[in-house]
Amino acid sequence: xxxxxxxxxxxxxxxxxxxxxxxxxxxxxxxxxxxxxxxxxxxxxxxxxxxxxxxxxxxxxxxxxxxxxxxxxxxxxxxxxxxxxxxxxxxxxxxxxxxxxxxxxxxxxxxxxxxxxxxxxxxxx
Length: 125
Known about the structure:
This protein is of the alpha+beta class and 125 residues long. It has one domain (2-124): CATH 3.30.1330.40. It is built from two helices and eight strands; from the N terminus they run βββββαβαββ. The longest helix is centred in the middle third of the chain and has 19 residues, at 47-65.
């Protein structure tokens, strides 16, 4: 059985998908963009600031579903430019100090609404 997870502490969805879905003790979080949920706008700054907002959005969804960053087992990072990898990684690493999840990072041709970074996450209890 699946449970749809939704919180006002993360950006509203902009299409036919859910912020997250929980099934059999696994939480699948849709790709999060650097949108401030209070304003509905992108955060100011570069990839570091955008990565910080993305991870805050992921954290809000994790919390709503009863998970933490310690439960994250896999992340997929999409970057507008692979040249931003080191800067993204610096912020990302501050959220995963021990037992970091498996991860892959890709440069993509374009992200929704011109984002520099998008991160999708899987967590398990």
